[in-house]
Amino acid sequence: MPELRQNPATKDWVIIATERAKRPEDIGAGTVKQPPNKVETCPFCVGHEGRTPNEILAYRTYGTQKNSPGWWIRIIPNAFPALIPQGVPERNKIEDFFTYMDGLGEHEVIIESPDHHQTIATMEPKQVEEIFLAYRERYQTLSRDPRYEMVLLFKNHGIAAGTSLHHPHSQIIATPITPIHVRNRIEAAMHFFDDNGTCVYCEMVAKELKLKERVVMESDNFVAFEPFASRAPFETWVMPKKHHSSFEIISAEDTKELAFIMRSVLGKLHVSLNNPDYNYVIRSAPVHEKGVEYYHWHIMILPRVSAVAGFELGSGIYINTVIPEAAAKFLRETAAR
User: Fold this and answer.
1) Could you give the CA distance from residue 281 to residue 28 in angstroms, rounded to a whole number?
2) Are the beta carbons of 250 and 298 closer than 8 angstroms?
3) How far from the centroid of its chain's Cα atoms is residue 33's Cα?
4) Of 107, 166, 167, 169, which one is the catalytic site residue?
5) Alpha helix locations (H) across the chain?
6) Which of 75, 85, 119, 226 is the most exposed place for a label (fewest CB within 10 A)?
7) What average pLDDT score do residues 313-320 get?
8) Where are the domains of the chain?
């Protein structure tokens, strides 16, 4: 069973992932390989449903059977989960010092398309809408489980971003803890609210829309921009213009609009950077803190076009070699495919 362990010096949590366990001598024994790109061996492709765990949810043609062809979105448990839904959310101590708990949680895979070779940047708009509606449905379901404090939706695209299968997919993980990394971000927003009486993210949106120089694109309810202090080239945030602290409460119509913005931004990155590896993460308030005034959910897109080296790891200060204003102008002038 996986286990959550906390570093007593930093308060960082780590997952000891027993389901993914390797022998120590196996680490470093081989070179990094590209993810498998063959339809014949891909467990996520149509006709291979028997090679995956049983589906949790699928958007499929009426009358087709569960765990069979006929789907256009399919959600399954991760075959090698970081966390599993067995255990209790109780913290324990060793020598009244080392904190640990059961590796309780959910780890699911959202298979985004039956087409092995598609990406969100190249899919039809309707398909991208369905992906984000599936995100919304699973996020809302997992958020209702009282055992979990955080639900994290993310996508790894490409080997540099950590993907292990080429077929288009995203992941969602529910955890029984709120990591210090997330808590620090929320507490910083809380301090700003205490000092100013406003949400720092709302202020950020207002200033970016006023200045326009870092805005990539906007719609009625969303804006995509390069943050003023971007940590890496082409780091892009997509944020609702109106204040909402949790992705959980997004409406179906706003979800479709968000899908349009995400497809457009990823399309621009796809064309301008030649289909870069990237991660994106939906940053939302912990599930027991939805509706707060001081936090504002958003999506961070991080193309993997630069390396994190010793200075960044040692100092926490990132070196960005592309001026955010120049990156935004470049993307604005790029037509999405």
Assistant:
1) 28
2) no
3) 23
4) 169
5) 125-143, 180-196, 200-211, 252-272, 310-315, 324-332
6) 85
7) 92
8) 3-21+33-180, 182-332
Residue 83 binned pLDDT confidence (cut-offs 50, 70, 90): very high
Can you read off the two tokens belonging to residue 125? 């708009």
Check: CB of residue 158 under 8 Å from CB of residue 165: no
CB within 8 Å of 281: residues ≥ 6 apart? 152, 153, 154, 299, 300, 302
Residue 240 in 3-state DSSP? strand
Q: What is the pTM of this model?
A: 0.94
Mean predicted confidence (pLDDT) in 191-207: 98
Beta bridge partners of 98: 94
Tell the CATH topology of 3-21+33-180: HIT family, subunit A (3.30.428)
d(CA 127, CA 245): 26
Q: Which residues pair with 303 in a beta bridge?
A: 278
Query: Is 270 tagged catalytic?
Result: no
DSSP string for residues in 269-332: HHHHTTS--EEEEEE---GGGTT-SS---EEEEEE--S---HHHHHHSPPP--S-HHHHHHHHH
Residue 162: which residues within 8 A CB-CB, separation 6 or more? 156, 279
Nearest by Cα to 125 from 278, 6, 288, 267: 267
CA distance 315 to 72: 45
Annotate 139-165 with b (16+ C-beta within 10 A) or e (fewer): bbbbbeeeebbbbbbbbbbbebbebeb
Quote the CA–CA distance of 238 and 124 in Å, as a whole number.
20
Q: What is the pLDDT of residues 124-140, one digit of tens each?
A: 999 999 999 999 999 99
Q: Which value, to the nearest 10 degrees, does the dihedral of the CA atoms of residues 24, 26, 28, 32 take?
A: -140
Q: How far apart are CA 47 and CA 64, in angstroms?
A: 13
- For the domain bounded by 182-332, which CATH number is listed? 3.30.428.10
Give me the mean pLDDT over the 73-80 stretch: 97
Question: Do 3-21+33-180 and 182-332 fold alike per CATH?
Answer: yes
